[in-house]
From TrEMBL:
Organism: Thermus scotoductus
Domain Enolpyruvate transferase: start-end pairs: 11-422
Positions of the catalytic residues: D317 (proton acceptor)
Family to which the UniProt record says this protein belongs: Belongs to the EPSP synthase family.
GO molecular function: 3-phosphoshikimate 1-carboxyvinyltransferase activity
Xref: InterPro entries: Enolpyruvate_Tfrase_dom, Enolpyruvate_Tfrase_sf, EPSP_synthase, EPSP_synthase_CS, RNA3'P_cycl/enolpyr_Trfase_a/b
PANTHER family cross-referenced by the UniProt entry: AROM/DEHYDROQUINATE SYNTHASE (PTHR21090), PENTAFUNCTIONAL AROM POLYPEPTIDE (PTHR21090:SF5)
Name of protein: 3-phosphoshikimate 1-carboxyvinyltransferase
GO BP term (any one): aromatic amino acid family biosynthetic process
Length: 429
């Protein structure tokens, strides 16, 4: 069968400004919480892409009304009590959807639901949410004893627990906090290493019970709560591709506007600055408890660094694009603490190493680290391994020399229009 591909010509300086699509994490959570609220609320400027459309469909299957209003969504919630879905719920490629929804469904008294997903999602570890949810009393079964989807849930009978996250994961934390809204007593999550805190901020936005004290976050059973409109900031993870593209293409200057600057997401800015990047940013406003502002990147000769392992959870989705920057830096870049990247949409450690090699870059791959020899890339072909971020990161890595990208449509999981935006900025003078 013919595989689709896209040939990108070498790109000149990137100049201009852009707004990137809405934040994926906030859109998933916004849709879920509005589906649990009472009455109607609007989600302004959400991400409308593969992953979040899976969430919209899932919440509809569970009884919420989700209507498109131009670029926005209008959601009519079910007021904490969801409807039993008539069929298997397909989570597509979206790990956030499957894990957070398991938390919500575990709390739905008597409701039965089966969750599945695409081949990538069915390979991903679900035991990390299933085990603590079972400790709360959830009844969940599935493939490999409940470690893999499809997963079947019979909701109800939850009791709060205190759970310390064994690996930093905002998805696990969020699944337990959502389950905690339906549990007897207090549900506490302890995170030794901070992860993105969008769920906590949205709980506050909707007036849901939440206490945060250092590494501990607690919630308890929620009373029915009214819907409230919510504006989704631009996705920092999507902005990151354009920032790095500008840094490594001589003569470039790009400004991303209206982008989320939550510091649990922006670890990449620190690493890039340490590499010598000319980057400025400023928070201008707050949207639903999230800081929002602009980021400007100008072409900068970069140098290799040894990345602080503690920063990885604050840039867990930006490692592929950091590898693109490292390929163009002078000297070696060492990126540790990557074990979680092995269980993303693809094995991202292997996918990064494969594509760097395909572009003529020296790379060594360890079980949870990468060592990248900088100095530039040669024209070649990019294999996304069914992973949106690999497709976009390696389009960026090869931008100055041109590249063939196989199956470019994978970018649409989080960024429909990515290649159009890239071409527009390359062409603008
Ligand atoms: C996400 C958390 C991260 C991230 C994913 C989105 C979220 O996953 O990689 O893209 O919205 O909570 P983990 O929680 O598995 O680290």
């Amino acid at each position: 069968m013919d595989r689709p591909f896209l040939d990108l010509a070498p790109c000149g300086p990137l100049r201009g400004s852009l707004r990137v699509p809405g934040d994926k994490s906030v859109t998933h959570r916004g849709l879920m919480l509005l589906a649990l609220a009472q009455g109607e609320g609007r989600l302004f400027y959400p991400l409308k892409a593969g992953d979040t459309l899976s969430t919209a469909r899932a919440m509809q299957a569970l009884g919420a009304e989700v209507l498109e209003e131009g670029p926005h969504f209008r959601v009519r919630g079910q007021g904490l009590r969801l409807r039993e879905p008539e069929d298997v719920v397909d989570c597509g490629n979206a790990g956030t959807l499957m894990r957070l929804l398991l938390g919500i469904l575990s709390g739905q008294e008597g409701l039965f639901a089966v969750l599945t997903g695409d081949a990538s999602l069915r390979r991903r570890p679900m035991g990390r949410v299933v085990e603590p949810l079972r400790a709360m009393g959830a009844s969940i079964d599935g493939r490999e004893g409940g470690k893999k989807a499809p997963l079947a849930v019979r909701g109800g009978g939850l009791k709060g627990v205190s759970y310390t996250l064994p690996v930093p994961s905002a998805q696990v934390k969020s699944a337990l906090l959502l389950a905690g809204l339906f549990a007897e007593g207090v549900t506490e999550v302890v995170e030794p290493v901070p992860t993105r805190d969008h769920t906590e901020r949205l709980f506050r936005h909707f007036g849901l019970p939440l206490e945060a004290e250092g590494p501990r976050v607690r919630t308890r059973r929620a009373e029915p709560f009214p819907a409230r409109d919510l504006t989704v900031p631009g996705d920092f993870s999507s902005a990151a591709f354009f920032l790095v593209a500008a840094l490594l293409t001589p003569g470039s200057e790009v400004t991303v506007e209206g982008v989320g600057l939550n510091t649990t997401r922006t670890g990449l800015l620190k690493v890039l600055r340490e590499m010598g990047a000319d980057l400025e940013w400023q928070v201008v406003e707050g949207e639903a408890g999230e800081p929002v502002g602009w980021i400007r990147a100008r072409y900068s000769p970069l140098k290799g660094v040894s990345v602080d392992p503690g920063l990885i959870p604050l840039m867990v989705d930006e490692v592929p694009v950091l590898a693109a920057a490292a390929a163009w830096a002078e000297g070696e870049t060492y990126i540790p603490n990557l074990s979680e990247l092995r269980v993303k949409e693809s094995d991202r450690v292997a996918a990064i190493a494969h594509n760097l090699r395909a572009l003529g870059v020296g790379v060594e791959e360890g079980p949870d680290w990468l060592r990248i020899q900088g100095g530039g890339v040669k024209p070649g072909e990019v294999e996304p391994f069914h992973d949106h971020r690999i497709a976009m990161a390696f389009a960026v890595a090869a931008l100055p020399v041109g590249v063939r990208i196989w199956e470019p449509h994978w970018a649409e999981i989080s960024y429909p229009g990515f290649f159009q935006d890239l071409k527009r900025l390359c062409g603008a003078s």
